[in-house]
């Protein structure tokens, strides 16, 4: 991304109303941002944080009402101020179905508010045949820890997106979009696009976008607000809060470079790397921090590929345990029960079970980390034991759970003693979870044109309502 700053008048003010569309934009912050002269409203709407299912299934993690509420507030404010509204990673995962879901809500809101925006819809879902061709041409390479991509892995994905940079948004803005609803995009590209389109310095634009990508998370008290205002000029940028109860300081602003980023000084984006090694952070007042010294280093243009698909099937069971004898020897209990459950499955189902897997997750002990606590760790008051059977079919996963049910319910830590009864959470005890959804790609594709893998559709409500 190269920008010509010689014609940049600046400053450019971008209002970031929330870390994710649907999380809850605040009306008082919207009014304050518009009053302070915001030139655009930009927000991310998705993430991979919640797993692969949302891309594989083409659904949103957020409920429709919360997204519609935020869109209603932001579309109304943008229309009244005559500034663009820019949304990226629409519908959580940014696949075509996710984008279309968001588009339908936006059209509904426009009708209710009697608005006639010109909407640019950016799609970035990829055709499998095209990806296979590019892979064969050596245009796709793996990111650690994965190896070379093969056709079977591409075919195993239900949906694949190419994570867009800023260029598709810039083109849509130049073409007169009032609203942009983008597919999967880097958070920073969504926020930086308007400033880059205006010719603002790339280093300051990308850094400001990185700081503001999660809204008020870059502030000292992120629960006191939802959004922030970034202001980019020829020398750097400022970030400020929009409510008196909150403020920014150099630590809260600089620390956000570590959010979802392994290097606190370098951030890789499509077409370049943001380098903040020599950035300087200075408090202007309680609510504003100024940043200078950010540098953008161009590099060959690549787009990250995210592909998700379904895997094997799982059935769950859950029990609660308060037995003091078991709680004093949790690790031993886990190992003995797991061995007994595998033996039970082999004896009752045999080879028909296939390449199955059973796990026991001891909530209240080590379910999150999986690590055995240090010797001498105090016994918990109670634990919840989650049984997870994974098999090639849902029917087999459930049959394994049913076979294990008596042992899971009654297993003692000392086999010579009377059988206990643990507390099942539900009846029937086995819960069919369905398929396991997985990210199957961790690769980048080289492109000579940032628009090559993007399709733009226009919805012009001005024309449709004439």
Write the layout of secondary structure elements.
Blueprint (H helix, E strand, L loop, with lengths): L11 E5 L10 H9 L4 E7 L6 H5 L6 H18 L3 E8 L3 H18 L4 E6 L4 H9 L3 E3 L8 H5 L3 E4 L4 H8 L4 E4 L4 H11 L4 H11 L15 E5 L3 E5 L9 H5 L11 E4 L2 E4 L4 E6 L2 E5 L2 E4 L3 E20 L2 H4 L2 H19 L8 E7 L19 E9 L2 H17 L12 E2 L6 E9 L3 E4 L8 E6 H4 L2
Helix pairs in contact: 1-3, 3-4, 7-8, 8-9, 12-13
Notes on the structure:
The protein is built from 14 helices and 21 strands. It is of the alpha+beta class and 466 residues long. The protein folds into two domains: 8-124 and 163-301 and 447-464, no CATH class; 310-439, Ribosomal protein S10 (Alpha-Beta Plaits). It has a ten-stranded mixed β-sheet with strand order 12-13-9-8-1-2-3-7-4-21, sandwiched between helices. Strands 5, 6, 15, 16, 17, 18, 19 and 20 form an eight-stranded antiparallel β-sheet that branches. Strand 8 (228-232) and strand 9 (236-240) form a beta hairpin. The protein is globular and about 85 Å long. InterPro entries: AtuA_N.
Rg over CA atoms:
26 Å
Span of the ends, CA to CA: 38 Å
The major pleated sheet works out as: 10 strands, mixed
Secondary structure category: alpha+beta
Strand content: 25-35%
Indicate the mean pLDDT.
95
How are the strands ordered across the major sheet?
Answer: 12-13-9-8-1-2-3-7-4-21
Structure summary, number of beta strands: 21
What fraction, in percent, of the residue positions are helical? 25-40%
């Amino acid at each position: 991304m190269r920008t010509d700053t010689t014609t940049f008048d600046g400053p450019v003010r971008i209002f970031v109303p929330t870390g994710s569309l649907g999380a809850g934009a605040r009306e008082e912050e919207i009014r304050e941002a518009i009053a302070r002269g915001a030139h655009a409203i930009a927000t991310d709407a998705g993430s991979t944080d919640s797993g692969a299912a949302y891309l594989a299934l083409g659904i949103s993690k957020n409920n429709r009402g919360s997204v519609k509420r935020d869109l209603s507030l932001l579309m109304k404010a943008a229309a009244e101020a005559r500034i663009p509204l820019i949304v990226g990673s629409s519908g959580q995962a940014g696949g075509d179905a996710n984008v279309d879901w968001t588009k339908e809500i936006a059209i509904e809101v426009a009708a209710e508010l009697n608005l006639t925006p010109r909407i640019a819809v950016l799609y970035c879902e990829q055709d499998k045949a095209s990806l296979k061709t590019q892979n064969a041409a050596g245009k796709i390479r793996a990111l650690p820890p994965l190896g070379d991509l093969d056709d079977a892995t591409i075919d195993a994905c239900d949906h694949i997106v190419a994570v867009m940079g800023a260029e598709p948004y810039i083109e849509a803005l130049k073409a007169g979009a009032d609203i942009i609803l983008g597919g999967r995009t880097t958070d920073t590209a969504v926020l930086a696009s308007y400033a880059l389109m205006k010719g603002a310095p790339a280093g300051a634009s990308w850094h400001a976008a990185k700081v503001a990508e999660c809204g008020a998370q870059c502030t000292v008290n992120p629960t006191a607000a939802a959004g922030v205002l970034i202001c980019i000029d020829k020398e750097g940028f400022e970030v400020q809060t929009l409510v008196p109860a909150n403020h920014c300081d150099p630590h809260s602003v600089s620390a956000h470079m570590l959010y979802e980023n392994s290097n606190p000084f370098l951030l890789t984006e499509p077409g370049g790397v943001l380098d903040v090694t020599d950035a300087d952070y200075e408090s202007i007042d309680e609510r504003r921090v100024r940043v200078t010294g950010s540098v953008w280093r161009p590099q060959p243009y690549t787009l990250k590929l995210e592909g998700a698909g379904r895997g094997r099937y799982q059935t769950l069971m859950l029990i609660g345990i308060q037995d003091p004898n078991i709680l004093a020897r949790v690790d031993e209990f886990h190992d003995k029960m797991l061995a007994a459950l595998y033996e039970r499955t082999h004896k009752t189902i045999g080879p028909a079970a296939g390449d199955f897997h059973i796990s026991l997750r001891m909530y209240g002990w080590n379910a999150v980390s999986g690590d055995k606590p240090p010797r001498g760790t105090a016994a918990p008051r109670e634990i919840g034991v989650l049984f997870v059977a994974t098999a090639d079919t849902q029917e087999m996963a459930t049959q394994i759970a049913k076979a294990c049910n008596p042992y899971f319910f009654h297993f003692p830590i000392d086999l010579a003693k009377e059988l206990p009864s643990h507390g099942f959470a539900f009846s029937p005890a086995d819960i069919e979870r369905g398929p396991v959804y997985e990210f199957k790609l961790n690769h980048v594709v080289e492109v000579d044109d940032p628009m090559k893998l993007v399709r733009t559709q226009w919805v012009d409500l001005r024309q449709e309502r004439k």
